[in-house]
């Protein structure tokens, strides 16, 4: 059983910590003892009685009180993790092990406290919660049946590694919260999607457009995540969907990779495959960045100029350094998400504290092959489509790695969630959907132009740095 201690908590912080503990007990099997000390002397007495994993110090304390506490900390055999205000943190530096010190710059909210409870008390390598699996299985069967009348028959679940697939229709979405950081991918045949739409909308196959297929599968994914969130919400989970990506095009190549373990959940309906790939990861190693984005649709979104500049510089420098050619930024404009086309698309998504990012690079295959040729030092005609996809995906990975390094100093720590690449001979039709602000960033090299869609969903950007209104007012005619 774990134990936590709140020192001199206000009435509001006691309520937040109490709610976080209740939620923790509802989700996990581990038990917690919650000690609430109204004074430093009471805290010292409780520390002598119980072995605390976490100590939350709510209010700024006097140097004398902090000296008393640190003296007690030193005497403990097992040192607790201390979470406190930035002022207390500065006074404790050099006295308490830096690895045990963490700041609470915005106070002790329920979500913030819960993430620390989970990060400190729960083993990050613990097995997957079977309720998550069950909710996905029930959710996909229910959603498909209600929307199209088709019954999906589940097959044997297996583990897998990320690998290249050849699909007709592919959709991926991400969601996270309360220790889960996951992506969910659906791949199926055009025959089955047409059948689902025909049953749902009473349309003959010849009247079903690519745009309708994308919209339909996007709605299926949206309903699936909604069903999973609702069911897991009964057990205390609060999950946040972030980005949806759908691609269609006969026999397109698709490759997706995420942190975590892959579980393949195959289904069959009318002898047609419907495969769900679930990537499960826990971010309990993300301790110093506890409380990932918990925004909702009502929160005001900002477009931080520092993040935009970081993205632009990361693209130009990464392309120039890796391809040995000059790359320059030629402009940007507000992007309204909708149906789109490209021969190759590489999309990546990550989350952080109150903010998440999305990069989408779209290229012609000839241009992508030029990039791969320069990266691999091989003639373009010797490079396969798999090598093209791998090269462009790696290039985007390096762009994002530089971007994350650049903006971390602006107090924007990020963690990658998923990265997907799709391509085919001819056009891939796709749709990207997510909350936040999106821009089209235009670039050129001596050999070809290209575009990157860059999206930021931030509820914590200071209004001082917001450039969305300026870009809207100065949009090119």
Q: How does the overall form come out from the CA principal axes?
A: globular
Name of the CATH first level of the largest domain = Alpha Beta
Overall number of strands: 18
Number of domains: 3
Structural account:
This protein has 477 residues and is an alpha+beta fold. It folds into three domains: 2-121, Response regulator (Rossmann fold, 3-Layer(aba) Sandwich); 130-280, CheC-like (Chemotaxis protein chec); 287-473, Chemotaxis protein chec (3-Layer(aba) Sandwich). The protein has twelve helices and 18 strands. Strands 6, 7, 8, 9, 10, 11, 12, 13, 14, 15, 16, 17 and 18 form a 13-stranded antiparallel sheet that branches. The protein has a five-stranded parallel sheet with strand order 2-1-3-4-5, sandwiched between helices. Helix 1 packs across helix 5. The longest helix has 24 residues, at 210-233.
Keywords:
Chemotaxis protein chec, 18 strands, Rossmann fold, 5-stranded parallel β-sheet, 13-stranded antiparallel β-sheet, globular, 33% strand, alpha+beta, 477 residues
């Amino acid at each position: 059983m774990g134990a936590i201690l709140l020192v001199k908590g206000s009435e509001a912080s006691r309520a937040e910590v109490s709610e976080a503990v209740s939620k923790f007990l509802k989700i996990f099997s581990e038990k917690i003892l919650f000690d609430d000390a109204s004074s430093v002397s009471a805290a010292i007495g409780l520390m002598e009685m119980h072995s605390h994993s976490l100590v939350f110090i709510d209010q700024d304390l006097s140097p004398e009180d902090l000296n008393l506490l640190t003296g007690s900390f030193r005497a403990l055999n097992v040192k607790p993790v201390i979470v406190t205000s930035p002022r207390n943190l500065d006074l404790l530096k050099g006295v308490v092990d830096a690895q045990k010190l963490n700041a609470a710059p915005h106070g002790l909210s329920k979500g913030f406290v819960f993430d620390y409870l989970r990060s400190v008390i729960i083993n990050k390598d613990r097995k997957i919660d079977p309720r998550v699996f069950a909710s996905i299985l029930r959710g996909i069967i229910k959603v498909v049946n209600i929307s199209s009348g088709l019954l999906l028959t589940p097959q044997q679940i297996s583990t897998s590694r990320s690998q290249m697939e050849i699909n007709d229709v592919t959709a991926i979405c991400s969601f996270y919260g309360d220790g889960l950081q996951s992506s969910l991918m659906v791949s199926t045949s055009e025959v089955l999607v047409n059948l689902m739409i025909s049953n749902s909308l009473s349309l003959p196959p010849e009247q079903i457009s690519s745009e309708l297929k994308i919209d339909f599968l996007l709605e299926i994914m949206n309903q699936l995540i909604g069903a999973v969130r609702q069911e897991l919400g009964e057990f205390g989970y609060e999950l946040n969907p972030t980005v949806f990506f759908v691609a269609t095009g006969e026999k397109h190549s698709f490759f997706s990779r995420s942190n975590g373990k892959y579980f393949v959940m195959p289904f069959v309906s009318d002898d047609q495959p419907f495969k769900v790939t679930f990537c499960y990861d826990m971010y309990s190693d993300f301790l110093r960045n506890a409380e990932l984005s918990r925004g909702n649709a009502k929160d005001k979104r900002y477009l931080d100029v520092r993040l935009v500049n970081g993205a632009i510089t990361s693209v130009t420098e990464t392309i120039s350094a890796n391809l040995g050619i000059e790359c320059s930024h030629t402009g940007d404009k507000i992007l309204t998400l909708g149906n789109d086309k490209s021969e190759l698309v590489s999309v990546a998504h990550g989350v952080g504290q109150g903010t998440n990012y999305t990069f989408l690079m779209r290229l012609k295959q000839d241009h992508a092959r030029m990039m791969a040729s320069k990266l691999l030092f091989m003639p373009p005609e010797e490079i396969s489509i798999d090598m093209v996809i791998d090269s462009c995906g790696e290039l985007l990975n390096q762009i994002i790695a530089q971007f994350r390094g650049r903006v971390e100093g602006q107090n924007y720590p990020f963690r990658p969630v998923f990265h997907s690449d799709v391509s085919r001979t001819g056009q891939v039709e796709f749709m990207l959907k997510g909350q936040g602000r999106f821009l089209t960033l235009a670039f050129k090299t001596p050999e070809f132009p290209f575009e990157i869609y860059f999206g930021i969903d931030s509820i914590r950007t200071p209004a001082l740095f917001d450039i969305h209104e300026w870009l809207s007012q100065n949009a090119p005619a």
